Amino acid sequence: MMSRRTRRRLAADAALLVVAAAFALPLVWLVLSSVNAEATLRVRLPKPPTLHNFSAVLTDEITFTPMLNSLLLCGGATLITVVCAAPAAYPLSRFRARFSRPYLLTLLFATCLPITAVMVPVYGLFVQVNLIDTRYGTALFLAASQLPFAIWLMKNFMDGVPKALEEAAWTDGASWPQTLLRIVLPLMGPGLAVVTVYTFIMMWGNFFVPFMLLLSPEQLPASVSVFTFFGSKGSVAFGELAAFSLLYSTPVIMLYVLIARRLGGGVALGGAVKG
Amino acid sequence: MSRNRTRSRNRPRARTRTRTALLRWSPLAPATVLLLLFLAGPIGYCVGIAFTDTQLTGQESASFVGLANFRHAVTDPDFLHAVVLTLVFTVVSSLLGQNTLGLALAGLMRRASRPLRTLTGAVVITAWVIPEIVAAFLLYSFFERRGTLNALLEWLRLPTQNWLFTLPILAVSFANVWRGTAFSMLLYGAALDGIPQEVTESAEVDGAGGPRRLWHITLPMIRRSIGTNLMLNTLQTLSVFGLIWTMTRGGPGNRSQTLPVFMYDQAFLKSLIGYGTAVALLLLLVGALFAAAYLRLMREEV
C-alpha cells in the first residue's frame, strides 16, 4: 500500500509529464527536423540523421550576415542601455529627492506600456527625422524601449550593495563616476551581468522593431531575415528552416542558462519582468 | 537689517546645495534624454497625428480632422471585430491560459519529484526564452493542416481539422499560452515559496481538503502575486504581434486580426497612418489603464 504522500507525488509527476510532453512537442519537431533531409511539418524520426540542413543554411546570405547584423544591432543597443542605466540607477538608489519616487513610478509605468502600439508613430517620426533604415537609430530605439526596466532592475541590485565602502571613498574625495566604476559596479557584478544578458535576450528575440525600422535587406537582423527569407519562398524547406531556427535560438538559450538562477530572484524582486 | 544679512549669508550655501544636487542627479541625464526622445517623443507624436488624416504616400499635407479617426473607428466593423478578437485572445491566452496553467504548474512542481520538476521547468522555460519568430514557426508547424497536432489526432483516431483555418484565434491563443506560461510559473513558484509551511500544515490538520485549502488559504495569501501576474500577462498579450503575424498574418480574412495586427494593416498595408495611429493611441490608452492599475498594486514597494 502506498502512503498518501507517495500517491500525491506520483499524481503530480504524471500531470507534469503530460504538460511537459505537450510543451516539448514543437521543440522536438525543431530538433528532429533540423537533422532530417526530408523534413515535413510533422514530428518524424529522420532516417538517417544528417547535417545537410545545417550546411545548406550556413551561408553568408542566410546565416552569417543576419546573425552578424543581430549581434551589431542588439549588442550596440544593449551597450547603450547598460551605459545609460548604470549611472541612472546610482542616484536613484543612493539619494532621496522629491522627484525620485515619481521618477521611479514613471519608469515602472513605461515598463508596462505596450511598445507595439508605439511602433506606428515611431515609424512616422523616424521617416521625418531621417532615422529610418539606419542601424544606430533602430539601436537607440531598442535601447530606449528596454531602458525603463533595465534601470529598475539595476536599481534593485544596487540597493543590495552596502554604502559603507562608498562613504569611505567619498571622504577621500572620489567623484561619482569613480565611485560607481571602481566600487559599486564591481560589487554588483552578477547583477550587472543579469541586466546586460536579460536586455540582450529581449532584443535578440525582438521582431517588430527591426521589422518596422529597417528596410534594406543587407541590414536585417536574423529575426526579420528568417521571416522574409522563408516566408517569401513558395515551397519552404522545413528542414533548413528548423536548422536556422536552432542556430538562431542557441545563443539566447545559453545566455539564459548563465543567468537563470539569479533572474529567478529578480522576478520576485522586480516583479516587472516582461518587456 | 539683520534679516537681510542672514539672507545674504544663506545665498551661497543655497547655491552650493543646488550645485551638489545637480551634480548628484546628473547621472540621470543620458537615460532621461534617451527616454524623452525615443519613448515620450513618439507617444506625443502619436497623440498629435491621431487627429489628422495623414497617409503614407501621395499627399501634399495632412490636415487636422479632429475626432474623425476615432469616430470612424467606433463605426468601423473591422475595428470592432479586432476589439472582440483582442478580448478573446487576451481572456483565453492570458487570463485562462498562462495564468491558470502557470499556477497549476507551480503548485504541481512543489509536490513532484525532482527530475520531473527540472524537466518540466526546462521545457516550459525554453519555450519562453526562444525568439518570438522561432516560437511562431514552431507553433505554425504544430497547428498546420499537415502538422504535428493532426498527426497526433490521426494516431488517436480522432477527427482532424485545419486548425489555422477553422479556429485561427484559438490556435494563436494556444501559441501565446505555450510561449508565455513560463513567466507565470516562475512568479507563482516564488509566491508559493513565500507561504509559511505551518499555515498549510495547520490547515491540513484542521481537515481542510485540497480545493478548500486552495480557495481559503493559498489564493488569498498570494493575491498580490496574482494581481501582478494578471496585469503583466495582459499587458504583454496586448502587444503580441510577431506571433500572430507569422502564424496567420491576421487571417484567414481577418479572423485572427487582433488590434496590433489591425493597426499595422491599416497604417502600412492600407497606408492610413492617421487612422492606424488613432488605433495605436487607443491601444496605448488601454495599456496605460492596466499599467496604472499595476502601479497601484506596486506602490508600496517603491
CATH topology annotation of the largest domain in chain B: MetI-like fold
* Outline of chain B: flat
CATH topology of the domain at 62-231 and 250-270 in chain A: MetI-like fold
How many beta-strand elements of chain A?
A: 0
Tell me the total number of β-strands of chain B: 0
- Low-confidence spans of chain B: pLDDT under 50, at least 5 residues? 1-6
Identify the CATH class of the largest domain in chain B: Mainly Alpha
Structural class of chain A: mainly alpha
Globally, the shape of chain A reads globular
In this structure, how is the largest beta sheet of chain B organized? none
Computed over alpha carbons, the radius of gyration of chain A is: 23 Å
Tally of separate helices of chain A = 12
CATH homologous superfamily descriptor of the domain at 62-231 and 250-270 in chain A? MetI-like
Overall pLDDT level of chain A: 84
The radius of gyration over CA of chain B amounts to 26 Å
Largest interface, chains and sizes: A-B, 93 and 98 residues
The residue ranges of chain A in which pLDDT falls below 50 over 5 or more consecutive positions are 265-275
Amino- and carboxy-terminal Cα gap of chain A: 50 Å
Under the CATH scheme, which architecture of the domain at 62-231 and 250-270 in chain A would be assigned? Orthogonal Bundle
Assembly type of the shown chains? heterodimer
| CATH evolutionary superfamily of the largest domain in chain B | MetI-like
